[in-house]
Amino acid sequence: MVLSILVSGIGDMMADTTLTPGTRRAQLAEFWFYFSENRGAVIALVVFSLVLLAAIAAPMLAAHGPDVQFRDALLAKPMTDTAHGHFWLGTDAVGRDILSRLLFGARYSLFVGFFVVVLALSVGVILGLLAGWFGGWVDTVIMRVMDVILAFPSLLLALVFVAILGPGLINAMIAIAVVYQPHFARLTRAAVLGEKNKDYVMAAQVAGAGNMRLMFRTVLPNCLAPLIVQGTMSFSNAILDVAALGFLGMGAQPPTPEWGTMLSEAREFILRAWWVVTFPGLAILITVLAINLMGDGLRDALDPKLKRS
Amino acid sequence: MIKFILGKILWLIPTLIGITIVAFGFVRVLPGDPVLLMAGERGLSPERYAELTHQLGFDRPIWVQYGEFVWRVLHGDLGDSLVTHRPVLHEFLTLFPATLELGFCAMFIAIVIGVPVGVIAAIKRGSWFDQVSMTTALVGYSMPIFWWGLLLIILFSGVLHWTPVSGRISLMYYFPNGTNFMIWDAIASGQKGALASALSHLVLPAIVLATIPLAVIARQTRSAMLEVLGEDYVRTARAKGMPPRRVIGIHALRNAMIPVITTIGLQVGMLMAGAILTETIFSWPGIGKWMVDSISRRDYPSVQGGLLMIAVIVMVVNLIVDLLYGLINPRIRHR
Fold first, then answer.
1. Residues in B touching A270 (Cβ below 8 Å)
2. What distance in Å separates residue A147's CA from the closest CA in chain B?
3. Given this model, what pLDDT does residue B330 score?
């Protein structure tokens, strides 16, 4: 539910920044106008779309299966031709095609980012709404718990959660989401506190709207700008952190072609085969950079106060 | 001022209690029997099991156990490591200087480069310097540092042979009564080449750990500076005919530094997370690597103690930053 409100809210929010409300199409055009002013963001959008496409079409694009081992082509250099075909980015220590593994790996990274943001955002927004709307002891209890979570370095806490839940991709994602949600809770609470005494909320209250309706339909759509920006930041950070957990052996387990796990497996070959290490990391960097650039563009387009600073 | 400080400290008490609950609860929610996990022994006889249960206090009510845990922690007893059988606090304090040294050097690099870059980028807004430095900063911010570290090892250790791959100092040097701050020990020992060896081991990990804070500080300095440069008092100073150098140095920079200092303070927690990865890549014998090793060795008393200590340290640093903030910016103090 939170997500659907978020999506419809992007349009509503644009109405706030323009004088003529217009139709949804006009709002989108307006949004695109500001977004496309940022050239980096547009390039990033193209790059991100390509990564997304690679993830969706991985089985069609990849020349080999991600787990197929070519025992006579171990650690083959990039651009090598063998009896099994052309290895654009070389093969790893057990003879798997790195490009194919990267293409399949895009699925994991994007899924991870999406899942973590949806989970952290849903929980964080609900907690932040409750804390901001009801105040008093509800606020105190929720925000003190958030403070405790924020007191631990995020990666350390995620590591400990994974130690409790056991290593694995799903557990790593849950751990990261738990660690991220206080940021959403804090932002939502702050935005709710700013909105809840305004006239339109009062009007809705007088008109007889219940707490649920006031929180989710009246107040929440007006608190979205910072949440969307935080959402993009969390999306890229989640990809980084889950890759880091994979790298430490606490995330996705081999032979999953997750980028961080691939790096972890490649570590012992760094001085012998640079390509085994270079390409998975480059894939992470490009994806994360694209998302961060898009985040900058989104911020410019959604939040006039932060515009062009 | 004293009221402000006391208020800040009182505010921390609930968080502190929460941190102890997390550290205490951690061992109890682990899958498996906590007695076996905390004792770290195998093939226990029922008698030995009962003895251990009593010794570790698992036969008492949970709130009594928690009370005893807090009592022990307040007396500096964090239990013994299952692997080395030495007190966890002792282990922590032995390894902490290594992390502190690395963290300080990283922060030094980040501030010394990040602040000037941010200031120049703001003054020359829109120039090629601004564009190149801010693009680089965004790349740095997006960097998977564990990969960045490996790349630097390939280049500087593998190809150029400039720096060693891991460790803190060459095995030729040994300081039995050292402080474990390697640079200080190397200087104090007076041995020829010791300092150079320590520095060559330190430089790559410090650069890797500095990467993200550097990017964040540069971006934050730039936007803080831009905001201040648009303020009325800066325009007034300029209109009075004050030389640009003085306007920027005296009026703008000092005010722009307030949010930058907060950012620097917030990076300390990030630095701890970064230390976990950096220390693992470079086999740097500090707290980060110790925590990762303790988790994979299932040395739960060490994980518990480390978790507690790190959270308290991060909290204290944030408190200091908060107080400093109040000191620089009187408006905060009186709110």
1. 150, 153-154, 158
2. 6
3. 65
pTM above 0.80, yes or no: yes
**Cα separation, A121 vs A137, whole angstroms:** 23
In this complex, the residue of B18, B150, B273 whose CB is nearest that of residue A156 is B273
Residue given tokens 């998977």 in the structure block: B144
Segments in chain B forming alpha helices (H): 2-29, 34-39, 46-56, 62-74, 88-123, 128-141, 145-152, 182-189, 194-229, 232-239, 244-246, 253-281, 287-296, 300-328, 330-333
Tell me the C-alpha distance between A94 and A112, whole Å: 26
Q: What six digits make up the tokens of B249?
A: 């140095």
Q: Which H or E run contains B282?
A: none
Which residue shows structure tokens 């790096």?
A: A263
Please identify which residue in the block is written with the tokens 């550290």. Answer: B23
Average pLDDT across chain A, whole number = 83
| Pair B143, A255: CB distance under 8 Å | no
**Distance between CA atoms of B174 and B192, rounded to whole angstroms?**
13
Q: Out of B141, B273, B292, whose CB is closest to A154?
A: B273
User: How many Å is the maximal CA-CA distance in chain B?
Assistant: 87
Among residues A4, A76, A17, A23, the alpha carbon closest in space to that of A307 is found at A17
- Most confident of the ranges A297-306, B25-34, B108-117, B164-173: B108-117
pLDDT of residue A304: 56
What value does the mean pLDDT take over residues B95-124? 93
Q: What percent of chain A has pLDDT over 90?
A: 27
Residue pair A259/A242 in contact (Cβ under 8 Å)? The answer is no
Q: Do B181 and B220 form a contact (C-beta atoms < 8 A)? A: no
Of A163, A249, A309, the CB nearest to B226: A309
B310-329 pLDDT per residue, tens? 999 888 888 888 787 777 76
User: pLDDT for A25-80, tens place per residue?
Assistant: 887 887 888 888 888 889 999 999 999 999 898 888 877 888 777 777 777 778 77
Q: Is the ipTM of this complex over 0.90?
A: no
Burial letters B125-151, b for 16+ CB under 10 A, else e: beeeebeebbeebbebbbbbbbbbbbb
> What span, in angstroms and rounded, lies between the C-alpha atoms of B276 and B284?
10
Cα separation of the two ends of chain A: 33
Per DSSP, A152 falls in state S
Asked if residue A167 lies in contact with residue A250, where contact means CB atoms within 8 angstroms, the answer is: yes
For chain A, say whether B153 makes contact (Cβ under 8 Å).
yes
Q: What is residue A75's three-state secondary structure?
A: coil
DSSP state of A76: P
Give the alpha-carbon dihedral of A36, A111, A250, B158, to 10 degrees: -50
Stated as kind and residue range, the H or E segment containing A216 is none
Mention every residue, 6+ apart, whose C-beta is less than 8 A from residue B271: B103, B106, B107, B209, B213
HSE toward the beta carbon, residue B57, CA cutoff 13 A? 13
Cβ contact, residue pair B18, A244, below 8 Å: no
